[in-house]
Amino acid sequence: MSLNNNNKTTIADAIAYIPKKPPDKEGGLPKQVGNKTECGLLGFLLDLKRDYQPIRNQIPEEKLYKVYTFNSSRKSMSTVIKLPDGSFRMYSKGASEIVLKKCSHILSDVGEVRVFRPRDKDEMVKKVIEPMACDGLRTICVAYRDFSSDPEPDWEDENSILNDLTAICVVGIEDPVRPEVPDAILKCQQAGITVRMVTGDNINTARAIAIKCGIIHPGEDFICIDGKEFNRRIRNEKGEVEQERIDKVWPKLRVLARSSPTDKHTLVKGIIDSTLGDQRQVVAVTGDGTNDGPALKKADVGFAMGIAGTDVAKEASDIILTDDNFSSIVKAVMWGRNVYDSISKFLQFQLTVNVVAVIVAFTGACITQDSPLKAVQMLWVNLIMDTFASLALATEPPTESLLKRKPYGRNKPLISSTMTKNILGHGVFQLIIIFTLLFAGEKIFDIDSGRNAPLHSPPSEHYTIIFNTFVMMQLFNEINARKIHGERNVFDGIFRNPIFCTIVFGTFAAQIKCNGFTLSDQRGLQAVGVGLFPNLCLVNHDCWPNCTVILNHGNQSALSSALHSQRRIELRAVGKISEGEELTVSYVDFLSLSADRQKNLRESFHFECTCQHCSEKISDDLMTATAEKDGSKPSADKVKEIIALSKEYLEKIDIARVDRDYHKL
Fold this sequence. Notes:
It contains 23 helices and 13 strands. The chain is α/β, with parallel strands linked by helices. The chain has four domains: 5-174, Calcium-transporting ATPase, cytoplasmic domain N (3-Layer(aba) Sandwich), CATH 3.40.1110; 182-323, 3-Layer(aba) Sandwich (Rossmann fold); 331-516, Calcium-transporting ATPase, transmembrane domain; 524-664, no CATH class. A seven-stranded mixed sheet has the order 1-2-3-6-7-4-5. The chain has a three-stranded parallel sheet with strand order 8-10-9. Strands 11-12-13 form a three-stranded parallel sheet.
């Protein structure tokens, strides 16, 4: 049935006075801001082919005679305008069943005003309001009332003003559920979070929306009640709220419709103060209105809407949702649980390292009079187990698996029983390995024991193996520490965290580097490297009878350039080298240095040798054979001969090193 023009005009006049934001730029589309219900009513006028802007231009917003803003207790808002003849007209919009009760007349389909009988009201509720509400529509009743100017009404007396209305129409507005909301609610339920809807909508509307969202499902034994029934159940004969009564309601309550801000605060307080269960419930509340402030403040976590929320709601909340999206709460839950798990992962790793390091250092010092882990080594261990490990384990990105378990209890210990088993298990395993190497390592690897070394003696190969083993066990235990709930696959998702991978591989490379290429002045050699000769080091001085040379094998061009160079490589020993001692040597292009630099090396580092080759400045055989004479280079056959001789002696050096018999050289 179509509306006649008189009714359309009346509807347009009643709805038009709603704030609207102008276009952002010339020619742009107008943007409706504010309450979504009011925006929906303005859209309804456009569907009726009625432009509300000319109506607003006649009486601008600042010239409205009286405005009764929306109040959650009366569930309506009203606007009073002054007509040209001096009389007044008030337009009201609000919850359909509440506004209808205040109507004594109704506008017929032909635009005539007739008496609105109680029987007609009941029929409208059953045939119009309830069917729309069951479809999830928010029903709004639009009404008006005329006042004479003489005498002028007492506008402060709301009870008398907001009565004797004339109903114009009932509008059904759909507030569609966002596509991502049902999935977000399902994730919350899987995560052990109960979602309850507290709304001012009609009970039928609220139930229909709750079913669409997945808060309730057909056939489930959950409670959906309105505010009136809720207060009847939780209050005694004196009207006082009793905790025992609330405890009988809230566990199964899923939808609370036609509720007031007081009902919302009462429910939040009742759940928090509940005596059911061993642990107190953790309550999070969402809200956008000023009246939601007390409930947001009372809750453990308050979420305010960043777009539609009022300043009061934002001030009372703990977290502001900038996109007004429920799915953002799911992300907040994921990140919150991820932070907790990251702390637990770091503690699991940290305690294992500390327990093992302290026991090894203390026990080793008591038995061998010297700790197997030196001070500098402990500093390195401290660096990788504190700074690097915290970065690696604290940067794990949150995953959906965090939402597939119940939340931690309020009084749950930070170190769980599973973590305790991991700490003790890894600790015992590492101690067994370390003590086995400490007391039997020399037999296992056929090396000299480091336990009998004098105090403050140079690092031994024995203790170096212990240090490397200790660090490597911590490095791989860092991977194990990623799992704290007993998961089997510790490598699951490891490549989703590039920081973790970088730290693990970087620490691994640094550990190899600092142990594989060392230079110690406590082992009989003061080696100074100034301009390293890149690929080859040949030593045939009499002052190096027992030196093992570590070669950095290069390509043929580098070898050729070395053999044809006229620069001389000189190495000097500070003191006597013990027979059979294996050294890693660095080398210096000594003769290419300035005179001042040579003098400084001699004085500061005792860079001198008294053998015949050095004191009489006899050139090395190899360098002499390959040097240019009178501008001519040696023949190709001569170079091949020298290269063959060099390789022969290098093979002897390698054999002597393997056999540990340096007298052959």
